[in-house]
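Entry 12.
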Amino acid sequence: MRILATIVLFLWITEAFTQSDLSSKFDSLMLDLGVRSASCGIIDDTRVQFLNFGKKSKDKGTAPDSSTIYEIGSITKTFTGALVQQAIREGKMELSDSLKALIFKNVEWSTELPDIIVKDLVTHSSGLPRIPGNLWMVTDFNMNDPYATYDIQHLEKFIASYTGSHKKGNFSY
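Predicted 3D structure (tokens):
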């Protein structure tokens, strides 16, 4: 939640301050929130500009840059919702479209897993578990970065072999 508030505040203050004012305000905000580093890309009609703040680690004084990779966690849900909305507006999908038809066309769907539609995902009512049951079985599993090597093939295996108590329609986050 703190990171989301930081991003929202960042987007708001970019309209009101020069880049040097923004830099000092953002550095202060990061210090208050205990955030070590942050990067932002600003896209307009003619260019992409990157703003980077803080240091990559407390041990090294290296500043983040446009190639720095961050784990963004729950904010991906916001990005996913925005991309779904854009795809719907462009006529590429509907909220009622089945995941089987959109993504998992060649996967034998588990009989214990009812059809899931796009709306189920964006409203957190698909009934799918928060953590896929085969996450721990991934080669090179690392508890500090559990999804680092979890790919589409692992997800397809999970969907094909799903067993569990699926309660579609109940909000769960």
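Annotation: Helices lie at 2-13, 19-33, 75-89, 99-102, 118-122, 152-161. The chain has a mean pLDDT of 81.
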